Amino acid sequence: MSDNQVSPAAPPAQQSASFKEGILGLLNVYIDPASTARRVQLKWFWVYPLIVMSVVMVICQLQLVPFTIQAMRVDPPGNMSGMSGAQLQQALSMTEKITTIVAYLLPIFILGFTALAALLVVAMGSIVGARAKFSHVLGLLLACGMITILQMIASVIVLKQKGLDDIQSMHQLQVPFGLDIFINATGALGGLLNFFSIFMIWNIVIMVLSYAKLAKVSYGKAFFATLPPWVLGMLFAVLGAAFRK
């Protein structure tokens, strides 16, 4: 090799997400898909929505624990229906402890589920020729989760306004923000109608538009690639509602 030969320049280092960029990304995700697509490409951006989602969801879940216990006390599920008063109280006490522990573990579940969904989006994207890095998709899905937490906050507010004494069943914990506003259904159908809330539709639209900008593909291809996150969520919601008394 000639001594005069110039070595190829190293690729520029990926810019890290500053605190300002992180906060702006969390705010702009509600209305600006193009800005969201740009910011999710910043290194470590995904940490910001993960922290905010984790804190808000843990707080909201802890606020919901008393309502869950009240619903189970008034209308015990099948495995508790035959218990005596003392047995039921003991079971409810144990359920409260487990539910509280699970609430504090939510950040792990959020990251694990979102990482799985991101892998599936990357795989689906490769089918339609989309090229988006896993870390960018992970950041996008977590950022879109900022829309979902609005629904959880709204649910807590609605239930707090009702009060514990008005809770008579587990079904009442499923606050209607979707088609279930107009159609009062229980079981799997109720879960399906409740899943497609105004918040979830908003989430899906922003996700598709942002992914299209990120991966530089058509909206149709973006919709196909981003099916896994909300389809998995829908299945969990339907199955959970189907087995809920």
User: What is the overall pLDDT average?
Assistant: 88
**Percentage of residues in helical conformation:** 55-70%
The total count of helices amounts to 10
Broad structural category: mainly alpha
Secondary-structure element order, N to C: HHHHHHHHHH
The coarse overall form would be elongated
Strand content: under 5%
Distance between the termini: 76 Å
Rg from Cα: 22 Å
The unreliable regions are 6-12
Number-wise, the strands total 0
Largest sheet entry: none
List keywords for this structure.
single chain; 245 residues; mainly alpha; 10 helices
Structure description:
This protein has 245 residues and is mostly helical. It is built from ten helices and no strands. It has helices at residues 19-28, 33-39, 47-74, 85-104, 106-127, 134-162, 187-195, 198-215, 219-225, 227-242. The longest helix has 29 residues, at 134-162. The model is unreliable at 6-12 (pLDDT under 50).
